[in-house]
Amino acid sequence: MKISFFFFLFFLFTTTFAQNLSPEQVADLSETYREKALWFREMPHFNRDSTVFYLDTAAALLHNSRPIQYERLANLYRDITDRANRSHNFIVVDSLAPIGWSYYEKIPDDQKDNVLGYNLLINWALIKIIRGEPKPGLELFVKALDLLKDDKRPEIQLKILKDKGRFYYQYGLAEEEEIGIQYLKESMIGYQKSDYPEKYESLVIAYKLLSYHFENSNPDSTDYYMNRLKELLPQITNPFHHTWYYYSMGNNLIKRNKSDEAQSYLLKTIRLLEEYNLTTIDVYQFAHSSLGDIAKEEGRYDDAIDYYQKAKNSSIEINTKSNTAYFISKLYSVYEQMGDFKKALEHYIEYSEADNIIEVERNERSLRESELQLNLVQQEKALAVKKQQQYIYIVVLFLGTFMLGLLYRNYRLKQKSNQKLEVLNEELAHKNDLLDKRNAEYELLLKEIHHRVKNNLEIVSSLLELQSSQIQDPSVQAAMLSSQNRVHSMGIIHQKLYQGENLASIEMRDYFINLGENILDSFNASGKIKVECNMSKLILDVDTAISIGLITNELITNSVKYAFEGKDSGTIKISLSPIANEEEKKEVELKLIVTDDGIGKVADQPSKGTGFGTQLIALLTRQLDGELTYENNNGTVVSLLFKKANIA
Q1: For residues 65 and 406, what is the distance between their CA atoms, to the nearest angstrom?
Q2: CB-based contact 161:190 (threshold 8 Å)
Q3: To the nearest 10°, the Cα dihedral for 207, 212, 217, 220?
């Protein structure tokens, strides 16, 4: 308490004193405090409170002086938000990151250092990913890469490789994790051969994430990277890396059924974290959780509960929701194993509530859709049974009333029967109201599913665009653009589904118009080429619409890319309509026609480009059991004839 009071008095005196200093003196004093803060982040004199105090004091000095020195403030906030410094916890850093970026934006454009802006955005993006907010994290990451897209210096390219590896690995999707591993390996090789100041810190990051990645699939690789990390420890003065090494060694020993050795490493992890007042980081949580696993396995349930509870409380303190849910599930399992089912149920309910909050970020849409569809089927069956029962009840009551009328001809009995019918009708009306509400809820859920599918397809498109921006090969870039258009063609369908009234079918004319506009925009051809859709409204089911949409996407793309070479303008026409047939059939024949007034296609001419689009069209045509024909008639005419069991 005395130390905190002294810091407060010192902070107050320093900021007041700064008002009488020149800007140069304030800058020098602020830099002194910054260096002092960074000195306290290193072992053996590590002191997190002192690091925070001196960084905050340095920032206050600059903020209270006039004129405000935005570049120095931005540099200072780069250190404050750098996870390697670990000055503040994640919640505080997340609130400070936008302040640092706002200072950078106020620097005159001709004085801005893009590397400084990049570092501020990367720090912020990684914090967002750790806090379970991937979408804003991705936006910040793309914005950061854009700042250095033209910087070809080797040290900058190596830094970008390392940061890409960290970001992709921690983004949370399996495909991105594999991409991240490749970037991390490349950056590791580069830093091993370099003498850059950040060499050791960057290698530690690479060794950590690579050992994580292989811990289940290839233990030998994990041992290799852990040994490389151990070799680096004498050069590392950041206690976070030391504690992480001890924690990882403990976990690896647990997997090898060496609980006694594992326990000593885990206890050493906790002692070191408590010695340096680092109990709010996730390693502290998971070290307790691992000790709880050992205690549970050995039947020391009270010890296990104590360790899991400490892990949960530490996670709540820094608001890492997914970790908190994980530790609650641990408590649930140990109470269940003890046979204390009341406590187990309480923790299971708590876990379910916590898990539901983070469900949106888990990318498990297909499972949730299947569950929803199953529930809908069950509801429909239950509704059919109820209606059948209601019908039987009505028939029985009617016959009973009729027989009573014939036998007794008694007005009073008739009146009672009418009253019973009235009550039954009210109950039926009430049940119908409930069914209407449930149907509305299910419709809302289906719309939400389509909305989220559309949003996730947009994220996929953004990731393709991000990857494309890093590729120099024009043919590969063209392939990536085609993939974006295919993804977008499916995204339009899901957008139409959640915006429309019918959740199971698509109006094709409006869809074709939107699809054509998107493709023209992607090729910057809106002023040169126009797309016309001369057809009546036609509604198809989702599966058929997706196949037709992908085929049409490929045909329009081919026309835009190849049909108008040497021409200043052109027109692409699309139509989809049923074919008249005198014989009454259960199946309706539909004909898709896509024409252009371009230069035409030479017969038996091989496909241009990769040929993937042509293969895709052929595959989808077979799926539709259709017939595809090409002809030249003042341009190219492509016809697809297929049968459909029904149309709306």
Answers
A1: 102
A2: yes
A3: 40
Q: Which residues pair with 574 in a beta bridge?
A: 533, 594
Cα dihedral sign for 208, 210, 216, 221? negative
Q: Which tokens sit at 193?
A: 């051969």
Is pLDDT of 351 > 70? yes
Instruction: Give tens-digit pLDDT for 433-467.
Output: 777 676 665 555 555 665 666 677 667 767 766 77
- Pick from 322, 334, 240, 230: nearest CA to 287: 240
CB-side exposure of 634: number of CA atoms within 13 Å? 5
**Measured distance CA(159)–CA(188) in Å, rounded:** 10
Residue 121: per-residue pLDDT: 95
Q: Residue 570 in contact with residue 527, Cβ under 8 Å? A: no
* Tokens 């809302």 -> residue: 444
For the purposes of burial, counting CB atoms within 10 Å of the CB of 274, is it exposed (0-12), middle (13-18) or buried (19 or more)?
A: exposed
Chain segment 212-231, per-residue pLDDT in tens: 888 888 888 999 999 999 99
Question: Residues near 89 by Cβ (< 8 Å), separated by ≥ 6?
Answer: 280, 281, 317, 318
Q: Of 322, 321, 329, 325, which Cα lies nearest the Cα of 292?
A: 329
**Residues, the chain, total?**
648
Contacts of 460 (CB under 8 A, 6+ apart): 487
41 φ/ψ angles, rounded to the nearest 5 degrees: -90, 0
DSSP 535-604: ----EEEHHHHHHHHHHHHHHHHHIIIIITTT-S-EEEEEEEEEPP-SS--SSEEEEEEEEE-SS---TT
Q: How much is the CA Rg of the chain, to the nearest whole Å?
A: 33
At residue 51's C-alpha, the angle toward residues 50 and 56, to 5°, is 95
347-350-353 Cα angle (round to 5)? 150
Beta carbons within 10 angstroms of residue 197's beta carbon: 9
Tell me the C-alpha to C-alpha distance, in Å, between residue 501 and each of 277, 289, 447, 490, 537: 57, 49, 10, 18, 15
Query: 305 to each of 300, 330, 348, how far by Cα in Å?
Result: 9, 9, 14
Report the C-alpha gap between 99 and 556 in whole angstroms. 47
CB 84 within 8 Å of CB 237: no
Given a cut of 60, whether residue 187 has pLDDT beyond it is: yes
Cα dihedral sign for 481, 484, 486, 488?
negative
Distance, in Å, from the CA atom of 34 to the CA atom of 364, rounded to the nearest integer, reads: 45
Rounded to whole angstroms, the Cα distance separating 68 from 108 reads: 13
Nearest by Cα to 569 from 601, 598, 533: 598
Q: Compute how many other C-beta atoms are within 10 angstroms of the C-beta atom of residue 45.
A: 10
- Compute the distance between CA of residue 418 and CA of residue 412 in angstroms, rounded to an integer: 10
First-to-final CA distance of the chain: 75
The phi and psi torsions of 132 (rounded to 5 degrees) equal: 80, 35
DSSP character string of 135-197: HHHHHHHHHHHHHTTT---HHHHHHHHHHHHHHHHHTS-HHHHHHHHHHHHHHHHHHHT---T
pTM confidence score: 0.50
- Mean pLDDT (the chain) is 81
Q: How far apart are CA 502 and CA 443, in angstroms?
A: 9
User: 539: which strand partners?
Assistant: 507
Give 3-state DSSP helix, strand, coil % of the chain, rounded to 5: 70, 5, 20
Phi and psi angles of residue 108, each rounded to the nearest 5 degrees, phi first: -55, 140
